[in-house]
Write a sequence for this structure.
């Protein structure tokens, strides 16, 4: 049972992630993609008169928020029952006021960017590429161009 | 019932993401600094398995469990795919989280990720407030 406690290798995790594409499609007739759940949450929080502009398609995208809640539950299960030591996914510097501000700012870029690009790593880089879409390939290249550029600037300048 | 299925699938997905540590800021840093291949191999093998599965699904003309024809299509390209995509890339490098992993970080007890989530909702709101003025 050691495999349960150790981090999983790429050749286990990658294929499992890829299998969610046919699993979701065949059992629920939905396309994998998660970033529109941000809009769903916005609609739940905002007053009636501000909801219209989202044009949120509940029929197509309503399931994503439940899926996101599930992701949180899954991570909780791993942290509580499938890890020998406490998990640390964020560096020490993010556990400060300045760090919170940086995460909030970065979060704005994630929310704005994924909605502007009409998809994120799951919708474009996993699903879109799985159905061989050139638009999703361009989006994926833009994700990595942005990430590499920021990391280069933050590391060397 | 449909919500329950989504929660169960999400839970399984969350377990895989968390066990593979793709929800870790450190892994994302190592990816963008080319210090390890872990993330590239995960995304790459996920796409290979996804693409092969979809070829099989299409060649066998499989239907959804409900009996309906499968509904899937690509997204129409516009300038936002590049501009928004790069902005998301910056955010991904800063926070160490793409959308799904934000929820995983919170679930795993990394509560500063609540600020990432608050930011993401603000960002989605900003996009919809400004979208008529943005190039598409």
């Amino acid at each position: 049972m050691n495999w349960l406690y150790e981090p999983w290798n790429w050749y286990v995790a990658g294929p499992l992630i890829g299998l969610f594409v046919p699993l979701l499609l065949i059992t629920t007739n939905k396309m994998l993609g998660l970033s529109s759940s941000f809009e769903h949450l916005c609609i739940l929080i905002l007053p009636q008169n501000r909801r219209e502009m989202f044009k949120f398609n509940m029929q197509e995208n309503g399931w994503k928020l439940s899926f996101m809640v599930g992701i949180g539950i899954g991570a909780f299960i791993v942290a509580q029952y499938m890890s020998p030591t406490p998990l640390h996914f964020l560096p020490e510097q993010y556990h400060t006021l300045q760090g919170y501000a940086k995460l909030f700012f970065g979060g704005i870029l994630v929310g704005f960017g994924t909605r502007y690009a009409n998809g994120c790593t799951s919708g474009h880089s996993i699903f879109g590429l799985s159905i061989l879409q050139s638009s999703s390939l361009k989006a994926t290249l833009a994700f990595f161009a942005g990430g590499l550029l920021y990391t280069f600037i933050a590391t060397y300048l | 019932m449909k919500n329950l299925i989504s929660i169960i699938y999400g839970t399984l997905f969350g377990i895989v993401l968390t066990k593979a540590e793709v929800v870790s800021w450190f892994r994302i840093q190592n990816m963008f600094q080319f210090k390890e291949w872990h993330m590239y191999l995960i995304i790459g093998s996920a796409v290979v398995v996804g693409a092969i599965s979809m070829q099989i699904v299409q060649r066998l003309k499989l239907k959804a469990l409900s009996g309906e024809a499968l509904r899937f299509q690509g997204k129409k390209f516009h300038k936002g795919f590049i501009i928004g995509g790069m902005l998301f890339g910056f955010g991904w490098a800063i926070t160490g989280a793409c959308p799904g992993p934000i929820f995983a970080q919170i679930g795993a007890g990394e509560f500063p990720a609540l600020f990432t989530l608050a930011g993401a909702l603000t960002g989605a709101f900003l996009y919809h407030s400004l979208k008529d003025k943005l190039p598409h």
Observations:
- Chain B touches chain A through 109 residues (CB under 8 Å).
- The two ends of chain B are 38 Å apart (CA to CA).
- Chain B has a mean pLDDT of 97.
